[in-house]
Amino acid sequence: MVVGVLALQGSFNEHIAALRRLGVKGVEVRKPEQLQYVSSLIIPGGESTTMAKLAEFHNLFPALRDFVKMRKPVWGTCAGLIFLADKVVGQKSGGQELIGGLDCTVHRNFFGSQLQSFEADLPVPNLASKEGGPETCRGVFIRAPAVLEAGPDVEVLAVYPVPPDSALIDQLVDSQEGEKKVIVAVKQGNLLATAFHPELTVDSRWHTFFLKMASEIEEGASNSIVTIEGS
Ligand code: GLN
Could you tell me one molecular function GO term of this UniProt entry (predicted)? Predict the structure, then answer.
């Protein structure tokens, strides 16, 4: 398995270091043709407008969209989540080019500006618990986006409870009953997305989760090729 990391801007070095700690080599991707040599891709956090401009400059969008359509495993963190969303709100003017594929509406700066960056413990039932420890992870939220609405095929992996007295409540979609929460980690088929930054912590469970998901998808793909060949 060769894991590519989109290396235009943002925390790509931290993702590569996190993969290295798991004994996996992450390969920097900056040009469309480099996507042919990786079997999965991580899109790091950073600044999504800048990243989109650089991706446009390098003519990466068609190849990135093909990669997603070919059902190759892709994990977007923070700005990467914004890139993968089918719909983004909370942008200033004009918006930015997106890859899309994730049936979600994402608020680009749901949690506010750099000054409103924060850390929080999130319940994460899908991650293996740390030895004897609770199934929570430390979420590092930096100018963080959030998922406001998710389609029927989207599995919610983590939510952040929005306190009733928080101004953030006004940004939520109206339909929520009871305790208000916002989605901060999702999975849809070959796509994984987190609003926070696991690569900035020493906890490697999200990277392990993605690698397992990627190897299952790759195994499924090669089995179907064998079936076609053998049929
Ligand atoms: N909200 C930021 C953006 O629009 C993303 C922040 C991040 O990746 N840490 O690009």
Answer: glutaminase activity
DSSP assigned state of 128: P
- CATH number assigned to the domain comprising residue 109: 3.40.50.880
Note the ipTM here: 0.95
82 lines ligand 1 (CB under 6 A): yes
Q: What domain count does the chain have?
A: 1
pLDDT digits (tens, 9 = 90+) for 160-173: 998 878 888 888 88
The residue with tokens 């190759």 is 72
Domain range spanning residue 162? 3-230
Task: Report how far apart, in Å, the C-alpha atoms of 121 and of each of 97, 135, 161 are.
Answer: 32, 10, 11
Radius of gyration of the chain measured on its C-alpha atoms: 17
| Euclidean distance between CA atoms 19 and 2, whole angstroms | 11
Sign, CA torsion 57/60/65/66: positive
Element (H, E) at 4: strand 3-6
- Mutation probe of ligand 1 site: the residue of 8, 11, 15, 48 with most atoms within 8 A of C-beta: 48
